[in-house]
Amino acid sequence: MQLVGAELLESREILPGQWLQAYHAPSLVTGSRAGQFVHVRTGDLSGLILRRPFSINTADGATGTITIHFRTVGRGTEWLTHLRPGDTIDMLGPLGRPFEVDAQSRHLLLIAGGLGMAGIRALADEAIRDGRQVTLLFGAASARDVYPTSLLPDEIEYVVATDDGSVGHRGFVTELVPEYEAWADQAFACGPEPMLRTLARLSVGRRGRLGVARLGRKRGGGRADPAGSPAARRKAFLQVSMEQRMGCAVGACLGCVVMTTSGTPQRVCREGPVFASEEIDWEGGWAR
Amino acid sequence: MKAKRRVVTASGAGAPVRRRPTVRKVKSAIVPAPPKPAVPKAPASVAARPQPAAPSPEPAERDAAPTSVDLTVDIGRGLVLPNPILVASGTFGYGVEYGDIVDVNRLGGICCKGTTLRPRIGNPTPRVTETPGGMLNSIGLQNPGVGAVIERYADTWAGWRVPVIVNVAGESVGDYVEVVRRLDGVPGIAGIELNISCPNIGRGGLQFAIDADAAASVTAAVRRATDLPLLVKLSPNVADVRPIARAIADAGADALTAVNTLSGIAVGPTRERPLLGNIYGGLSGPAIKPVALRIVYEVSQVVDVPVIAIGGVTELADVLDFLAVGAVAVQVGTAIFADPTLPVRLADELASVCRTRGLASYRPLIGTALPRRASAPSSKGVEYRP
Prior knowledge:
The complex is a heterodimer of chains A (about 290) and B (about 375). Chain A is an alpha/beta fold. Chain A is built from 7 helices and 16 strands. Chain A folds into 2 domains: about 1-95, Elongation Factor Tu (Ef-tu), domain 3 (Beta Barrel), CATH 2.40.30.10; about 105-245, Rossmann fold (3-Layer(aba) Sandwich). Chain A has a 7-stranded antiparallel β-sheet. In chain A, strands 11-10-9-8-12-13-16 form a 7-stranded mixed β-sheet, with helices on both faces. Chain B is of the alpha/beta class and about 375 residues long. Helix content of chain B is about 25%, strand content about 15%. Chain B is built from 11 helices and 14 strands. Chain B has helices at about 10-15, 40-50, 60-65, 145-160, 175-185, 210-225, 240-250, 290-300, 315-325, 335-340, 340-355, and strands spanning about 75, 80, 85, 110, 130, 135, 165-170, 190-195, 230-235, 255-260, 260-265, 280-285, 305-310, 330. In chain B, strand 8 (about 190-195), helix 6 and strand 9 form a beta-alpha-beta unit. In chain B, helix 5 (about 175-185) packs parallel to helix 6 (about 210-225) and helix 6 packs parallel to helix 7. The two termini of chain B are about 25 Å apart. The interface of A and B includes residues 48, 51, 249, 252 and 256 of A.
């Protein structure tokens, strides 16, 4: 975790109301992994008191560049769009825990809903670099919101679903998942919570359906890794990147928690934002 | 400086005595400045009178300006803060979260996250939202319970120079007393800040802060349970804070912290329900600074114990404002989220302002905006009554 001044290199509106910005922040890029995020200060303290968290959309170690992808939803993101190349912003990161890919996973299924692309995009780069095969399922409201192919690596299979059917599959992106269930060794998702909840439900009982339960795999024997540990997450079929309103982003304020099946709320900024889907209490069990 | 339990044991006999309990003695809020041979008469004479609006020092004085400024604050009962800039409870976790970003040993003190007897899972989400010039939070005192807090953090705190003040919350007097009993004597714990004003939990909490008798009874009960320096955090959500502040000081608090968050709500984007999961939240940030200033102004005139101000500090001018209305120290809270290094920088800037004005200590900056007192303040209630 570092606090640096990051210089804006390039800023453009890639989709209506959605921006992609590249910043020069070499010390943040070093050691950052897919799934982590940065916490950005927007403006001065007279107006906006909280920083804004953004997933690291891509990180290029060679040039020391990170990109963030966001939608203009309020004054903070609006402020960012008015920056000019050469302007420097205050960036804290890399924060949170990354996606954990099992060394034996050859086929990765990535599922993004809308702006969830920002949270999953970097994993495609990492997976390809490590020689894995990637299928990216993407869901959006309509064709005008579909993430441009030109911004994705050539090596991946990119499948689109739109709510209105204007491009690709007509319906939710989650409807595409069963087709890839057998192909995928692991799945990683980022998007609206209903999407993640559906994916979590779909992933239950997968091993039983596929008849692969523990056969041909040495792992799974021995003592269980504690829930939430990197080792336990690495064995999970589905990992999800969660979103929550955030305060400090370092684990101090406990603003950004999600309820987990252990009954203890976990911090999205610290234990997350990536969780194994079975860690999350999808019913949101706050009732005591 | 760390507080240490006043228990004489065989093993403890060899350990250095780091805190001398000061009972039956009225403490001044500020330690007397240690003699500084390098500093001639100028600072003392300035200190004697109320400070006129920042006179620029004469060239001769500038030459004589002190190179080191005394920023220490004596809160009482042996708790001496290295400087008057603390970090507020709930905004700095347990002091470890910011890692290398903040050098904790340069802070004046750390008030840790609110701690209760049993673990609490806190309130449903969303728990935080930004508001104009501030934010609302309704964490609901999520914490692992006092036992886990001691087990996980006390050793780390004991290794720090910065005093760690544990913020204690509860639903009943018994809860408060039991938490404080467990904290008493644990190395690494320099003091207690009683949170009797959390607006975010259903029972307890706030109700102690809005009634003078209830506030006094919980303060007195905790006072009996520990020798640790005791701060009590006031709520702004009352009609008149002065009788409550007096009652708490009379009941044995060593210092008052003013103020906790203001109760408020926000409406969700679809306007179908309030935004926060708990509906109610506590407002903090620059938006509440005028309210906090007013309360510090009122309280510091009616109590003799030190008042530590909190509410919307984002720059040195805010610190100076709070000092001017009688605070001896300030806590920085919400602004840390935007600027984690702010508290350390404020301490440096305060020292630098003192140097510029030729002051050997920041004491002359305290209370300059308060009305003159006709008589010496009463010392009633400052004594320790076991």
